Amino acid sequence: MRAPRGDEARPAWPCVDGRVNLPRPPRHDVYLAVAAFLGGVLLGALGLSTHQDSPLPAWAALVPLAVICAAQTFRRSLPMAFLLVGTVTVAADLVTVGNPGTVLVFTDAVYAAVLYGPPRAARRIPVLSVLFTVAATTGFVLWTRSAEGLLLGMLVGLVTIAPATTGAIVRNHREAADTALLRAEQTALLAEMDQVQAVTAERNRMARELHDVVANHLTAIAIHSTAALSLNDPATTRKVLETIRENSVAGLAEMRRLIGLLRDGADDLVPTAAPTLAGVEQLVERARANGAGSGLTFALDDRREDGAPLSVPADLAAYRIVQESLTNAVKHADPGEVRIALAQAQDGALTVSVTSAYGSRSSPRAPGSGSGLTGIRERVALLGGEVSAGPEPGPPGGPARIWRVRAVLPVQNDKEPSG
Q1: H helices within 75-233, ranges in order?
Q2: Using H for helix, E for strand and C for coil, what is the string for 379-407?
Q3: Of 279, 278, 274, 277, which is closest to residue 258 (Cα–Cα)?
Q4: How far is CA 206 from CA 200, 259, 321, in A?
Q5: Which of 59, 217, 235, 329 could potentially form a cystine with 356 if both were Cys, beta carbons 3.0 to 4.6 Å apart?
Q6: Region 314-340: what's the mean pLDDT?
Q7: pTM above 0.85, yes or no
């Protein structure tokens, strides 16, 4: 958190019973004021003064010095009040023999007003100091009619322009440092937000992969194990157990592949290529074996021609959509045909459609989490496509109602991130 500067360094004036309590001056400013007063007393004791012709005694010059040094204790908390008091005391100092300490403390008043004062004062005081110096120099030249007037004007510039310019430079550097610090904090915050979003996106991607590659095999295992428990035929039971083992081995291989992706830099694991629509026929054959005992038949209608080539993300997403739709069909569909239709337009947009009989079943053959359709929607959304899933009226001569999952995947660049 950046330290308050400028206006922020001035605390509010608390009121108690209608009385205004002045802010407590910082300890360092008190030390500075005491040192300035003692220095002025020493200069007066040595006989140093700004001018000699005054009817007042020499000790009278200590009164303006004491007043401006007392005001100096509020140089940070009340800089404008310090400048006002300093201006009045310098004018009063002209009536006395003058003390150099009063003039030196006045330069600090100009400096503090620019550095700690409000932004408007910080902009105006340097300009006013230049105008005042020019006017004073002109007056001195007209009064003395000699080069001594220019020398007096230079002294006025040292008292006004120099501290005002120094205060402006220091204030600009502090504001630039504050801006840089704030920008660094914002950059760090944005980087942290990007990291959180990246981690969340990666977790969602891995969740989709785990669901898609494991749910299919576990669904088959659950269905066939349930069938095995209700069968008394050893030959049929053995066939069911073989199917269970096949799905278990395939699921374990997929899990090893995902673990290899999670283990960054593991030397003992060979990465496996991501599945694509080139393996959709094997996917349908596996679903046909898993759903044969449930009265399900599977048909693949691949109408793709020589359209624009699919990117790797779109190819993987299409495969996963078919895989998840077949898994849901095995779990939820009524006996009948499950049709997988693939079509690609000339612009490269791929349409994936999976339909199955829908209606009378009261409960699924295997438990589900409901995250499959969510994963499909997320994959399609990442590619900027369209997806719909839900019941529809069945075709003539077919079931009264069907469940259709339809996704349209546009052409994507291979460099775009996959889901």
Answers
A1: 79-93, 100-116, 119-144, 148-229
A2: HHHHCCCEEEEEEEECCCCCCCEEEEEEE
A3: 274
A4: 10, 10, 15
A5: 329
A6: 87
A7: no
Phi, psi of 282 (to 5 degrees): -65, -35
Give 227's contacts (C-beta < 8 A, 6+ positions apart): 240, 293
- CATH 3.30.565.10 placement within the chain: 276-419
Q: Would you identify the CATH topology of the domain 276-419?
A: Heat Shock Protein 90 (3.30.565)
Q: What are the angstrom distances between the C-alpha of 338 and each of 63, 195, 280, 325, 396?
A: 104, 42, 14, 10, 16
Give the pLDDT confidence of 260-269 residue by residue, as tens digits.
666 654 444 4
Strands 336-344 and 296-302 turn out to be: parallel
Predicted confidence band of residue 418 (pLDDT cuts 50, 70, 90):
very low
d(CA 212, CA 321) in angstroms, rounded, equals: 9
103 SS3 class: helix
Distance CA 295, CA 272 (A): 34
Cβ–Cβ under 8 Å, residues 411 and 311: yes
**Using 50, 70 and 90 to split pLDDT, how confident is the model at 332?**
confident
**Cα 362 off chain centre by:** 47
Residue pLDDT, tens place only, 158-182 = 889 999 999 999 999 999 999 999 8
The whole-number average pLDDT for the span 72-91 is 91
